[in-house]
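Working notes for the structural subgroup meeting. M.R. asked for a predicted model of this chain before we commit to crystallization trials. I am recording the input and output together here so anyone reviewing the notebook later can reproduce the run.

Input as submitted:
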Amino acid sequence: MAASFEILKAFAPLLRYPGAQYGQNVERALTLCAHEPQARACLERLKAFVAAHDSWSLEEDYTRTFDINPAVAMDVGFQLFGLAYKRGEFLVKMQGALRRVGMDAGTELADHLPTLLELCAALPADEGIQLMEECIAPAIKKMLEAVPKDAQGLAGAALALGEYVAANYRCLGEANPDLQDEAHDITQGYEYELGDLDDLRLGVNRHE
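Returned structure, recorded in token form:
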């Protein structure tokens, strides 16, 4: 399972705004996915696209593919709960989980998909699996309903992740909407603090 979580972590930088190391990150994911033919096929197409485009084109493709298309938004809580108040509860719980393992969401909200992939690897194994199967996998499945199987460009990173998750994890359908149920609370033990919701931002500018 440790190797599986290591692969999940390798997908995280592929789903973030592309930087100078993006091509190297694709190569690392390809190496780790040597025995994952479906995911590897998507990554090979992604590698070819990255090699054929400059950094400005990659940034433009990322913005067009993920930032301005709500159906493919990288926010797991939004995919699961939309704009309902339950998303706020989910964000608070993800913030608590990140604090517990010493992680920082950076400039993104706490339910950002790449961050939660890394969180899976940082949590105890059983909690990481639960986070994946109850929350992340359903969100990815919903995201990919809006991505054609033959999509080109950086969408290939999401397609590759979807193939990998489908081959290695169960998807338990809809996340349990009752976030107070301890049997389904992946951040059990986190104590809600007054003001937590005040920390949640509705918009983030990664260029600040």
